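Let us begin with a simple case.
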Amino acid sequence: MNITQCTRYRVWDLPVRLFHWINFLSIFSLIAVALIMMYKQELGITGTDAKIGLKALHVTIGYVFVVNLIIRLAWGFFASRYGRWGRILPGPGFMRSLRGYMTSVRNREPQQFLGHNPLGRLAVTAMLLLMLTLTVTGLIRAATDLYYPPFGTLAAHYVAEAGIDPTAIKPYDSVGTDPKRMAELKAFKGPFGQVHKYAAYTLMVIVLIHIIFVVRADATEGGGIISAMFTGNKVTDKTPVDM
């Protein structure tokens, strides 16, 4: 590539880049803590206090993840051109764009994009849906496991025995709780835990595939996709199709 023929474009604004890396670190940390929780016995971590501590850490990181996601969802309506939802989520003409891109890849003359290419847009959409699923199910499990906000007060009030202060209810402790309602709460939260777990597994797979394709695209198509998430700039020797 003749660098003198390349053009530099400003693509990602600072809030978009901050979201990306906070999101990456949050997800990585959540997975790490979740793995420790899953294999705590093998790691020699025992006792209710340790179990609560690990869950509390997982939930605390989860709050960072959720707040970061909410800010990004809102910023998607105000961001610079390529950070807006209209340029990310599939919309009118998307299938035509996808077919054109796949044809260019098969012909070994891949189109260059300033924003996400069509496959990237599909990946981002899938990850976004999974992150929203993890947000909802995670907040429900935080409430029903630890009685944490924003729904924890409701859960504690529901399981507390008559005359018992709901704030006195402790996680994984049946003292002061109504046995029937505790059983109902357990049955209620179970499916949310399963959805949360398998959504996390699916997200891990998609993130891995996304990283592989980004590295491949950066190596074969150019544009500085990876560096752009640090600098905000892309450099290309072709005319981007999404200008």
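The second case is a distinct protein. As before, the sequence precedes its structure tokens.
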Amino acid sequence: MSSGMKVLLLNIDSKLPNIALKRIEAYHQAQGNKVLWDMPIEISGVDKVYASCIFTKNRPILENYVGLRPDIIAGGTGWDMNVKLPSQIEETALRINYGFTTRGCIRHCPFCMVPQSEGYIRAVGDLYDIWDGTSSSVTLLDNNILALPKHFREICKQLRKENVQVDFNQGLDIRLLTPEVCELLSSIRLKEIRFAFDDPDLESLVRQKVALIDTYNLRHYYFFYVLVGYNTTFEQDIHRCNVLKELGCRPYVMRYASVAKDHNYSLLAQWANQIWTLAKYDFDEFCMRRYGETVAHSC
């Protein structure tokens, strides 16, 4: 590939730095090419265009760009999960304090694309493949790092050695929480810990694991994502929030796309996602005080 090319990268919808596009950027810069980010006005005047689309709802945006530039190289879970980067780009090292040490997952959650797009879990690197050597913190995007216990121990060992704070950005699988995992978590610098309580059938386990982790003085680090409106009733969604409230935990309601604009689910998110409203009111009281209405729990 000759030097002097102009390359345009389009990050269609990711609010986080896009690892694939960052690899493409690093590769082309190493070739002496000029890289432009998110400047669609330049789409006809560059030599190559790459785009990443994560969410299917934003597919029409990318389709418009493809109409303008049919040779665009596009991928992502919202476009085509089968599109893979060439090996010379995929293997480009990125030490930007942000990335993956594992890919894939052992779970098959019906709402999640990871097993389909990444396959079964495997290690792909460690702290030193991500950390720049000077930053005081790193963000790990691993989808289920606790599913590889030996690897998780090694990552924690490296984090302790370098005194680097970590954000396990995609969350930790509470089903895999053990005394050893809690001990390791308590030995490193944490930003916060994200768990998920997406399945009502996990209530007993969530109660057990909360009791376990609270013996390690980690309460102020963690909260729970609660997926609502996917395959649960509204009553089950309220109940899970109330279980977490009872346990003294913070829920964060994540509305599935089909109910994102539903009034009742908006009320649920307003109540549960604010610490003070959750602590002060139950859901019905919140709705009555805020809007002078009640919500039928059977919807």
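The domain at 6-87 is CATH 3.40.50 (Rossmann fold). The chain has a mean pLDDT of 93.
Keep these points in mind for the review questions at the end of the chapter.
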